[in-house]
Amino acid sequence: MNYPGKIKKDVKSVNMTFKRGMDLEELINMSNTYYLDEDIAVIYKKPTPIAIVDASFDSHGRVITKAYFKEPSTLDYNGIYRGKYIDFDAKVTHNKTSFPLENLHQHQYEHMKNVIKHGGISFLIISMNNNIYYLDGNDIIDFISNNDRKSIPYSFIQDKGYIIEQKLRPSLDYLKVIDKIYFKGD
User: Fold this and answer.
1) CA 179, CA 186: separation in Å to the nearest integer?
2) Domain regions of the chain by residue span
3) d(CA 89, CA 179)
4) Three-state secondary-structure class, residue 44
5) Alpha-carbon dihedral angle through residues 65, 69, 74, 76, given to the nearest 10 degrees
6) Cβ of 67: how many Cβ atoms within 10 Å?
7) What stretches in the chain show pLDDT beneath 70?
8) What is the maximum alpha-carbon separation in the chain?
9) With contact defined as beta carbons under 8 Å apart, do 31 and 125 qualify?
10) Which overall architecture, per CATH, does domain 21-182 show?
11) CA dist., res. 137 & res. 121, Å (int)
12) Per residue in 58-106, pLDDT tens?
């Protein structure tokens, strides 16, 4: 099979890579590249804002030797799909029974609420129990608003979330879930 860039791989070797457990962000980044290449959506990983305090030069060029985070970052990914602003984050948990809310920082939660309030789509992609889930921001906000728990039970994620299938291209077709939720009649 020929892939972009004329790299030859067989499907079996690609599937073995997924089975070994690619990094979640790498899978999302590959999907975003596919969406961009196919003119489906424009979605990027946002850089974390840092302030450089000190730098030096070596044979590779300028090297940052001291820096700090300027401000708390919002969610990791943003872009546009079918005329809607999208903002989401990737989270991984090894907890088998729940998603700890300490993994979603307060400023991220507030940002998620603001995006939704202004008509955007916000969500989490959560890797948990050997599955990758799409959990919509509306469901997250509803859960947090109506519970005193410090975690979202796995049963809630199974009930409200959507499993995102891993495949060849795109690696994680999370836009298929957005289509199902937000663009039902289109």
Assistant:
1) 8
2) 21-182
3) 18
4) strand
5) 10
6) 12
7) 1-22, 47-51, 53, 67-73, 185-186
8) 57
9) no
10) 3-Layer(aba) Sandwich (3.40)
11) 7
12) 877 777 777 655 556 678 899 999 999 999 999 999 999 999 999 998 9
